[in-house]
Amino acid sequence: xxxxxxxxxxxxxxxxxxxxxxxxxxxxxxxxxxxxxxxxxxxxxxxxxxxxxxxxxxxxxxxxxxxxxxxxxxxxxxxxxxxxxxxxxxxxxxxxxxxxxxxxxxxxxxxxxxxxxxxxxxxxxxxxxxxxxxxxxxxxxxxxxxxxxxxxxxxxxxxxxxxxxxxxx
Length: 169
What we know:
single chain, alpha/beta, Nucleotidyltransferase, domain 5, 5 helices, globular
């Protein structure tokens, strides 16, 4: 059996307002490869904070090119407990319904995340948000910056539409 490379992923999501413009970020550290560090982020126009939390983990895992031993640290209890408290297994057993028989929110992203998790040996960890944890704070800054870039791009586009003489009636 080949030893899997260790990777630490710190993920976070941000949305303002919620629902509204969102961003996600992930910091990947590979201690088996010296001081290797990679930061990734993305954004969506119409989303929720929980979806962005999921996308942070998904975005980080998508960066891995082969099976690894991964520790994902998040400040989202929603994300962490889904795996550590057995919610995922219950939702799957119940046909993607909650204990209250309602459809599981974000089932599309949960299914994507499950497929990615199954490729690796994943351990989940929770850290309190905004508690001066350097990597969690970095993931948060990536998520907020991605959201703000989208907001700026949208405002720039709207400004150009409002000042473009070809759009005046």
